[in-house]
Amino acid sequence: MKKSGILMIIGSALLLGLFIYPLWNIQLEAPQYPDPLGMNIYINGIQGEEEFDIQNIDGINHYIGMKKIPTPAEMWEFNTFPIVIGGMAALGALLGILGFFRIIHPNWFLGWLILMTFLGILGMMDFNNWLTDYGTDLDPKAIMKLTDSEGNPLSYKPPLLGSQKILNFTAHSYPRAGAYLMFVGMLLTLVAWWIGKKANETMAK
Amino acid sequence: MKNIFKIAVLGVLGLFIQSCGNDESSGEKSGAITSNAAERVYVAPGEHDEYYAFLSGGYSGNLTVYGLPSGRMLKEIPVFSQFPTNGYGYSEETVPMLNTSFGFVPWGDSHHPDISQTEGELDGRWIFINENNTPRIARISLETFETEEIIEIPHSAGNHSSSFITENTEYVVAGTRFSVPYPQEDMAIDQMKGNFKGPLTFIAVGEDGRMNIDFQLKMPGFNYDLSHPGRGDSHGWFFFTTYNTEEAHTMQEVNASQNDKDFIAAVNWKKIQEYVENGGGEEIAAEYAHNVFDHSTQAATTTMKNKVLTVDPREVEGAVYFMPTPKSPHGCDVDPSGEYIVGNGKLSTDLTVHSFSKMLKAIENKDFDGDAYGIPILNFDSTLAGTVKEGGLGPLHTEFDGKGNAYTTFFISSEVVKWKLGTWEVLDRQPSYYSVGHLMIPGGNSREPYGKYMISMNKITKDRYLPTGPELEHSAQLYDISGEKMELLLDFPTHGEPHYAAGIPAEKIKSQSKKIYRLDENEHEYAATSESETKMERDGNEVHVYMTTVRSHFSPDNLEGIKVGDKVFFHVTNLEQDFDVPHGFAMIGANTSELLIMPGQTKTITWEPKKEGVWPFYCTDFCSALHQEMQGYVRVSGQNSNVPLKWTLDDEEIN
């Protein structure tokens, strides 16, 4: 149980990487931007990859009527996510300590992981909804109104994951270090549960 | 049949050209282009050139930037001349750059660029250039490629033996090619002999590049034509060629060409610097402008100065000597080791090379042949290192490749000649088209030349390009000098008249080149750093408009309350922070020029409306797909109307 408790503590502590590293990154590439414009999405706000990237992305987007990239104050998620992530990391560490001293059963670890996965999926759905809104809820006074072959307004939604051509830009959307640390952490908690369960079974014999 | 005829004609032509070739040519016709020349100068789309070359514009007053080996022009940097292309010399911020003691001078004659050095190597901080007509020296930043400072040289005339730089950028020198009364006074022209002087000005350069006249050396009234500093062992000395030691005041082409030898003046500036530091020299009245462009306020200011320190060379023991040099020498070039000083006697067929170490010995042994106005003349043979015999006709300038070879241009015989330092033998000669003046090897006047390319700058173009009426751009030629023989690779037109150039490997300065000016560092007095700060203010009949530009609108774009007889200042700030997104500003009927405003910059133009009506202004630089829409209106009311000031964007008042 000692080993599994330690792994649980480490695994949930890795969530804290999200406070340092970006969760996601979206890059926009075009012939006249040989250095792509990019934005890093953190759990507490969005920052340009280069200092003036956000200003320049907003500048391009205003032609097609997209909203400006939101500041932390403009999105509840940037206040809520840090609380959720911090809370889950603390809860995971607490469970790890209790497991270390054999106060609780390792199945609690699995319970934490299921909750975390559920929250993660909720977060991704919310992120996707925001991308959709950002790419389709356009200013009716937009300078350029483009339609697809069926005559419907074009969506400028960047992909949730992967690369996609949007007008003259190619958008690349991929996870970054913060997300990878979270995945590794969650994997460690799964391992913690597995080792703890095995140890318990051995002891029971 | 037709083809056979063509081949036959070509064959005959080929034979004819071959037979006209130089005796040097080893079976190939002279000036023949090597078969793969095109590949060697081709810079593929999107690739960068290996070298920056900065060519002076002569009577354009500017400095043009080219890439080598492609010969493509990259930029024209306005220095001494108004430049309506971007408003230099017209915008309120830059007008002071062209102030002098003679008032505002809109034109200049730029000659010799020189890149700052550290320990004898190009360091790529700044490039300096002289103005010949109204004597001035300018300093240009190699981060922004813009003129940052111009200092006027008082008591000087024909500022030609300039702007050469000592090997740690201690001094930039400015010599006098046309001797004048010193200080100026009313006297009969034919009283020149003995009464005119040729002051040599030593300008100290600070760590931040700031220029300040340290002292003027009161030299005899000869024409100080060109100069170069010593390097290595000869660091601490400066060498100037002179002509018109006859001191002729008229018909100089004859009367200044009588003496068999003129001089190279050797100046021990370290001794004079010490003398000055210890309180030597005499302060005399002078009137000169010092113009500095401040990048934080983004505006130039002029300070008029009224004193200069003058030093009589005879008062400083061992400071100045004359070395006799045939005949009316033009170029004065020092090899990378600092041992050899080449005097290019433009009316001689030979090149005279003096030895620095022999010169020191001659001074020690007091090997003098009399004096000129109290300055010792060293015995000719005692300083002579050697002579390059029969190099050609009319030698002008010499550069070095760092591999022990020198390259000299011959104006009259129109060729570049390669010769060996130390043995003085001619190794190669190539024709140059036509009447070559200067030549340049990147770093060729430093301790570390980059001996791969050489460009020759020609004075006469004739048939080299498609004719463009009587006026043609001058031609330059690029040679590959990495092998034993010079190989002509490329011809390219150059803007104005290049008198000398400076080159530097692109890698040395490419990465320090600024992309934008930061808006948060903009301390311009009239900057509006966001649209909410844009406004109009009236002060008597002056109206200040704080305006911004961003793709693709002005703020404000509707202006009312301006009257006939007002003087309107448009202070335009470019809010962009993206590389290469300038905006322009043009106002109908303005008697100034347009503005071209870089990202983060504020520039100002004045407009004095003369007619009532509604007058448009617009952006002149195609900035986006909505560039055509980037315009606005100014309502101009009668002189006595009481239309209030009103400024709006999208019909909303801004506050």
UniProtKB/TrEMBL annotation, chain A:
Keywords: Membrane, Transmembrane, Transmembrane helix. This is Uncharacterized protein. The chain crosses the membrane at residues 7-24, 81-101, 108-125, 177-196.
TrEMBL record, chain B:
It comes from Salegentibacter mishustinae. InterPro entries: Copper_CuA, Cupredoxin, N2O_reductase_N, Nitrous_oxide_Rdtase_Sec-dep, Nos_propeller, NosZ/Cyto_c_oxidase_sub2, WD40/YVTN_repeat-like_dom_sf. This is Nitrous oxide reductase. Pfam families: nos_propeller. One of its GO terms (molecular function) is copper ion binding. It is found in: Cell envelope. One of its GO terms (cellular component) is cell envelope. It comes from the Bacteria. PANTHER family: CYTOCHROME C OXIDASE SUBUNIT II (PTHR42838), NITROUS-OXIDE REDUCTASE (PTHR42838:SF2). Keywords: Copper, Metal-binding.
